[in-house]
Protein: SsrA-binding protein
Amino acid sequence: MKDLSVNKRAGFDYEISEKLFAGIQLTGHEAKSVKMGRVDIAGAHAIERGGELFLIGMKVPPFQPKNVPAGYETERTKKLLLNRDEIKVIIGKIGTGLTLVPLRVYTERGFVKVELGLGKGRKKRDKRELIKKRETEREIRGHVGL
Structure:
């Protein structure tokens, strides 16, 4: 499994409670671009439409910038490939106030997959507490090594 893109902000902005894995429906030139590592998932999230899940905000630049297909959009909405039972469970959890956020995009046996995290958004004060906690842990580790 080769990581193509990692969403570092997701762990900071959301408190991830559960991780899921799904495929992404891509066109041919999008798949080539993603496999080259040219993908940005920062700020992306998944929504439900008509009983299916879609990934919004994932940016995939064109594979060949000078040979772009007509009507190509870098932030096109992409369908997530999951079983119906999995989709029903996820939709039920999204309805309770959780957000479905992409954590990383990777390849598995030649297929492009996405790791999704079900999480609750953190408030500003929670983020500050998290930063303080990390700093104190870093200081403690620094003093122990002396």
The chain has a mean pLDDT of 86.
